[in-house]
Each structure stands twice: as C-alpha cells, then as structure tokens.
Design goal:
It is built from 8 helices and 14 strands. With about 300 residues, the protein is of the alpha/beta class. The protein has 2 domains: about 160 residues, Rossmann fold; about 140 residues, Rossmann fold. The strands form 3 sheets. The protein has a 7-stranded mixed β-sheet with strand order 10-9-8-11-12-13-14, sandwiched between helices. A 5-stranded parallel β-sheet has the order 1-4-5-6-7, with helices on both faces. A two-stranded antiparallel ribbon has the order 2-3. α6 links the parallel β11 and β12.
C-alpha cells in the first residue's frame, strides 16, 4: 500500500502508477494552534505500507508529518512500514565539525526509527555515512543511471566530454559516472565561506576545448555550481552541462543559473520546484526507479542488483 505526505504528491502518484496500485487515502490537516493532524481513511491492518515523503521546505512540517504518518500506520496494525524519503534533508549535518552543535542527520534518523519505521528507502544521501545512523535496514538508491542517460541523450559530441566534480568530496560520485560513460574526470578545489557562498581555489584535470559535465548530489542556492562554471570557463571549457539528484533551488538559485553561461541544469523529481520557470532547467524522472525498488522490497528481492 502506497501513501504520500504533502511534500511530493506528483512523485508518489508516478510511483503508484508504475506499480499499478492506487495511491492510498490519507488526510493531513492543520489545527488553529498550528499543530498537524494525520488520519488514514482506509484499513492498514497487516499491510506492507510505504509512505513517500521528501524532506523539502518547509522541512520541519514535512518531517513531523512523516513521523506522524509512520506512528499512525504502526498504531493501525500495519505489518511493516517503510519510510520512502527521496530527499533526506539534514544529511549534510553528519559530523561534529564545530563546537556545541547537533549531529542532526543522526537525530533525524533516531526520530524516524522511534516513530516506528521498519526500514527506510532513500536516494543519494549527501554523506553516505548517514546510512550508518540507522539501526533499521536502509536501501540507498542512486540516480546515476538516470543522470547518465540524460547526458548520453542531451549532450552533443559526448566523446569530447569530461565529468567534473565541483569539489573534492564528489570525486567518488564523478568517477562512478565517468566509468559508466567511459569519460575522463576533473575536479575543482572548493572552499566554503558560508551556507550560501563558496570560493574556487583551482581545477585539477584537463577541460580546455571539452564539454564539461558537472555532477553533484544537490543544487540549493547554486553557489557551488556557478563557481564551478566560472572556473571551467576560465580553463577553456567549450560548453557546460550540470545534473543533480536533488533540485532544491532556493534563494538566488534561478537568477544565478539564468545569468550563468551553463547550457542546461537537470535534476530529478525527488523535489518539487514551483518557482520561476527557466528554459535552462530540465527534470529527470526517478519514479520508475523507486517503483521497482519498492516492488523488490515488497517481494524480498535484491535492490542492489538494480545497479549492477
């Protein structure tokens, strides 16, 4: 049985359609005192329940709604509850890199488990170690096949391309995609100045006269992206494309992308973007991938074999 929170109903409908099952009926309301109220409108008894909810803005509302839906499903005698979290916010808060702070990725994992989730299905965590914060099974999907297909079908002269990691932390992801596409890689040495500002300190690899394919887990304010584009242009890149798993697009992101010489920016539909449109934005569909993973979990089959 497939249910959806309020964060990404179109993706939930896409998943349900691919599975050939109706989307379950539930209601989320807000009381006058700002408290949320969640109710299922059908029996869940002994059901294998999958609750789809991306932790997109407003993150706190969507997180609490997910916790309430899990708790309500467990108290309604569901046999198993899987939290399907296409976009897992707080994944960047995975370590204590400053004094007196919360390791919030672990805290959110604890909340999801305490609410009663029996397992978690997510995609492209910013930090893979967040997987280890859970004591329940976690299936960690990758959007790499979808992104590789995007580059293969949208980029002319692909044999003259190079895969670029916008910072050293993305090298592993870039290497994996480069192997899939049989391309070389390059990476940019980045220094983060604040939550919204970054500075490029240099580029490692050859991009002169080549088509640069920038790959990262998410685009938020597009600060890292535009710095990468500037560095690539300065080093002679012929054309620049970018693809991300999560298109959060907040603050100045669209203005920065519009003013940038980048050809296109693609992101999957793990997040809904309802802001100003741009001809440079492309959306990639991961609904079929989530549907296949859910079907395999339901039947007790391998999920990792999706990527072999």
């Amino acid at each position: 049985m497939i249910f959806s929170g309020q964060s990404n109903l179109p993706l939930a409908e896409e998943i349900a359609e691919n599975l050939g099952v109706p989307l379950g009926k539930s209601v989320t309301e807000r009381f006058a005192n700002d408290c949320l109220f969640v109710r299922y409108e059908q029996s869940l008894r002994e059901g294998d329940i999958f609750i789809i909810q991306s932790l997109t803005p407003p993150v706190q509302d969507h997180l609490v709604e997910l916790l309430m839906m899990i708790d309500a499903a467990k108290s309604s005698s569901a046999a198993r509850v899987t939290a399907v979290i296409p976009y897992y916010a707080y994944a960047r808060s995975d370590k204590k890199d400053a004094p007196r702070i919360s390791i919030t990725a672990r805290l959110v994992a604890d909340l999801i488990q305490t609410s009663g989730a029996d397992r978690v299905l997510t995609m492209t965590l910013h930090s893979a170690q967040v997987h280890g914060f859970f004591k329940v099974p976690v299936d960690h999907l990758s959007a790499e096949p979808v992104i590789a297909n995007y580059f293969a079908t949208r980029v002319d002269n692909l044999e003259n391309a190079v895969v670029v990691a916008p910072d050293a932390g993305d090298i592993k992801r870039a290497i994996s995609l480069a192997r899939r596409l049989a391309l070389p890689i390059a990476f940019i040495d980045k220094q983060r100045l604040s939550d919204t500002e970054v500075a490029s300190r240099g580029l490692v690899g050859e991009v002169k006269g080549k088509v640069a394919l920038v790959i990262d887990d998410e685009v938020s304010t597009a600060g890292t992206l535009t710095q990468a584009v500037d560095a690539l242009r300065q080093n002679g890149a012929q054309a620049i494309y970018a693809a991300f798993t999560h298109g959060v697009y907040v603050g100045p992101a669209i203005d920065r992308i519009e003013k940038s010489p980048i050809v296109e920016v693609a992101a999957t539909n793990t997040c809904i973007y309802n802001g100003r449109s741009s001809d440079k934005l492309q959306t990639l569909n991961v609904g079929p991938l989530f549907a296949e993973a859910i079907w395999r979990i339901h039947r007790g089959e391998s999920v990792s074999s999706l990527f072999t």
